[in-house]
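Q: Fold this one first, please.
A: Sequence and structure below.
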Amino acid sequence: LDDYARAPTIPEGEDRARASVRFHGPSARWVRETATPGTVEEEGDGRTVIWCPVIGTDEGLARFVLGFGGDAEVLAPESLRDRVQDALRGAHAAHG
């Protein structure tokens, strides 16, 4: 079971865009404890950065990031950052 848990979820060698997301607050600890080994970097001050592949469109990843509210910041790629910002603008327009 330990070997299975450590195995990469995406086949190695596949050329995919990679996303980089910074987490802070309570979410940073959760990410550190649950992320795939080798995808996490602790920055100090309770901040954590994860790298993950973008599979297909970045819509699903944007929804994942948005679920963390203000505890998540998209660093790359720009297309993911733009998608998250567009979703936030839409939410603000609907509820602002």
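Q: Good. Now the second chain.
A: Here it is, same layout.
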Amino acid sequence: MGDAQDTYILYINKKTKMIDQFLFTVVAFGLTEPSLMTFDYETINGIKVPSKRKYAAANWDGQLKDNDYTITNWTNIKFKIDADKSMFQKPGK
């Protein structure tokens, strides 16, 4: 809690308008050097959600320092409520 000091730089895909990757810090855990995170998306009930993420140490130009990735896969993703899909539409649609 408290005052967040993290830094994020988003890379948004011009065609899909989705976040392809981002640089980030987690100062509260002592991580002041950036990591680069990438996503794979899956469509569930008509909504694109990240189902895989991987991240590794990088520099502020987005170049990896090594290939020592931490990978997280989410499977069997379900929504507990019947979400109004219109809230996920791009503005103006």
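Q: Anything worth noting on the second one?
A: The radius of gyration is 16 Å.
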